Amino acid sequence: MDSKSFNFIAFAVILISITNLYSNNKVKIENNEKTNTERSKGKVFCLFKTDNNTKRFESIRNVIEKLGYQEVPLHTHAPHYDWDFIWGYHGISPLKLNYSNLKDHQKINHIPGIPSLTLKSNLATYTDSKYVPKGFEDKLSIQRYSKDHPDVRFVRKNKANRGVSIVTVEEMNFTRSNNILEEFFAQVFVEDPYLINGHKFDLNIYVGISSVDPIRVYYYDKTYNLRFCEKPYNPNNFDDLDTYVISDNYIPGLEFPVIRKYTDHGYLAKEALHLYFIEQGINPKIIVDQIEDAISSIVLQKAPKMLKKVEELKAANGKNHFIELVRFDFILDAKLKLYLMEVNMSPNLQAHPKMRAHKPIYENLVYNFLNLVGIGTTISDKSLGQFTEDESSFVLNDHSISVTPDICLNRPCNETCDSTQCDLCLNCMSDSFKYDLKLAFWEHMNMGEFSRAVPPPNVSFYLKLIFTII
Which UniProt keywords apply (predicted)? Predict the structure, then answer.
């Protein structure tokens, strides 16, 4: 068996294990030919927002239009279903869509239940991870923690993650209200941050979720988004937020002198940061391994809540309507330990004057993500979910997922599907599982600048784990 066949078999086995972990739900795959014949125009997309800021969609609109989509308006007072894809900024719940009316191929860029990951207080308080500083939403829990950890300081944040300040336990106010901007939570303050030229910084990674069942997660591996505090860090004075908080006054990574000396020669921020670490005698793999582990472990922890919300909507094609692009914001401490500070839903991809140099990066990110999830394809006027049977025959067919003939053509698999070793045999797969594998195969072949985090690339470890369980 060659290495390519082994890698795909391993990938498929991992998908089966994750499917069993997160859902036994089977989605019936509908024939989309009727939908295709009903369409009277090309691909259509909507950009949905609840405010008047249209500039934030600049990069997104530019890419989607280049992929052949036409924009049509979508408003809360007049929701409609004449679209192929919605990109919403603050979520689309105000639209009050009837999800059972969706066509099978329609996609929405928000996964129900994603606030379990993106709401700052949820992430901090209800995530069991070494990468997330502990959070608190009530006085009693923070008092108990403070008693056991007397040297720890706390950061007060409101749930929209604005108004950050270092406070004592006595100064914390956990008053409840109906306004997220007025509700506060506390989080352990990360002491002794890693500094570059005396400045604290954060490291942002864009993460795409293409499926919640089985869970498939990718991250944009081309570069990092770096942001430096405007002023040098001063551990003896926390009155000036610009010394320890990434505020609106931050310095973009491409403009920071240490990074710019590399980026001026055509390199991106990721390469620049790695070169800097190497000059300091630090192996960048220390950081990369933590990033991959943090993304995969935390999304896996939140996946069941997302899947539960998806199932509650009873959408026409179930789980297959929803995708997500978020941004993980990390910091490092002086010992190079990684911490996740927040996950941004609908990260700002507006190339405003300060970030104008990032416009090609933002557009490359969007382009690669849309290709990954099948919204950008090489079939004219079609997204992945709209392929006819004839088109699927040369793009996604059974041959792409046909593996292990030595097992499937011999006993017991050629007679029965009762044995777990037959799970990857075509004659033993349900239509919905075939479809999941074909989508995973599409993503594998169209990752572009993304790398896969879940299922993890370290297949040998997970295969050993899976077969130990079996």
Answer: Signal
